[in-house]
Amino acid sequence: MPDKLVFVFQTGVCVLSTFLMILNGTIISPAMTKIATDLDGVDSQAWIASAFLVGACASQPTYTFVFYLIIKRRVVLGFGALSFMIGCLVCALSHTINMLIAGRTIQGAGGGCLLSMSFIIVADIASVEVRPRIQALLGISYGIGSVSGPIIGGALVDYVTWRWDFWLGFILSSIIFVVAVFFFKEPANVSRDSVLSKLKRVDWIGVVLAMGAICCILIALSFGSILGWTDPHAYGAFTACGIALILLFIVETKFAAEPLLPKSIFSNFHAVVVFFFMLCVGAQFVANMFISPMLFQALYGVDAISSGIRLVPYMVCLIFGAIGTTAALKFFPFTKFFLVLGAASAVIGYGLFLTVNENSSWGAQAGYLGFCGFALGISQTNGLVNVQSVVAEKDVAITTAMFNFFMFMGAAIGVSIYQVLIRTFVVHNVADVPLEYLYVANKFGALKNYLFIRNMPVEYQGPIIHVYARAMHSVFIIPLGVAAVGFILSLFIKNVRFGQPAQTVKDPENVQA
């Protein structure tokens, strides 16, 4: 097959992989409460999103490390697609919430591989000059997946069944699997060592400890909100997380021959700043993707598809931010300017979103969402270009994975915290509601599930809607604070010039911006 055609196939499957990962991350956002209600697991509904993000977080550095050692694109990408297919199948056939959560974790692990491999392969097959254009294509597919996910998910929930959210992912991942296995060309520098000998070099202890720490913190947040923060399950999970992090630090710095988290990257101040900046971006992203649909359904009584449609301004501005700044870099080639601009836009957007209540107009909400989407589009595209330019060429692959890891880590922790806070604030706010209204709300289950608010008599709905409005308002203080931290971090990001190749010297600090 001609090299140009191979390049087209490889680029195409990278674009489709990015689209699929984001599609399945967002497709359930307007459907989570409906899915949890059907599977009798409303208290665990945050895990429908969190499990996917945990799997994605844990898999990205692992798959990247395996790719770096084995250099077999078709093997790693094909395995990721196969994992995604299995996860989709488990989710589609789920009859309990725990089975669904297990499937979402497997699905996330496969999706994490697809996403990080897409960016790594692009960095590997495209020149420095061409790379930002291909990454812009990935950004567009990211945006399209984000736009279409809530709409498709809402439509399937309202008119077919939520199980088709996962059958669709199964079909698309099957296509990726076939293309990866039959049309991917391997690089000429593949090591001749056996696969088994290469796998022995993987830092499996680091992988287990990293996954354990992530799972423990999310379990602690879930148990704390349901059982109480003094419950042994909650503080036991927090303690386990702390122990796992301490052990991870010891293993990575003292014992691992080839660490999961290379010292050459984490001793690079400029790279670390970008990583923590993306941690903030991830936490902001899920505030809109998962909490906004809840707000639309609870406060305004819209159905799942309408709540997805209301996110379109957010996604359109995300795409505009990604494409617009990629084009603007040719004329003003300094990534830091756009990262500071994106961080400032996030502060403005979430600050304005705090004014939303049950009486807010749709136009105002669309404008506020636009600011937030624009911020994400700018931050993700320019952040990746920036961090790939401040590390050594040999570290570009793992740096790309860590870039996505921190963003999804922020998203996983963020969505769990937001769900915990919504539940906490709803319980706190009902103290101001007259007993007569509370009796009716409890009779219909509206305080546990906002989808049941409209089942109540109309004259009793207002105070309960206001309970959720106040809870959502309080929750959105958190992404505003996170956006403010992100803005401060953006001021310390290195002012990398567009088109500057990854560092080739031993000490990246010695290279001028």
Q: How would you explain this protein's 3D organization?
A:
The chain has helices spanning 3-26, 32-38, 46-70, 73-92, 97-125, 131-159, 164-183, 195-199, 204-227, 232-255, 263-266, 269-300, 304-309, 312-328, 335-353, 362-389, 396-429, 435-444, 458-475, 477-490. By secondary structure, the protein is mostly helical. It folds into 3 domains: 1-201, Growth Hormone, Chain: A (Up-down Bundle), CATH 1.20.1250; 203-257; 264-513, Growth Hormone, Chain: A. α12 packs antiparallel against α19. It is globular and about 75 Å long. It starts with a helix and ends in a 23-residue tail after the last helix.
What descriptors fit this protein?
513 residues, mainly alpha, Growth Hormone, Chain: A, 20 helices, 76% helix, globular, disordered C terminus
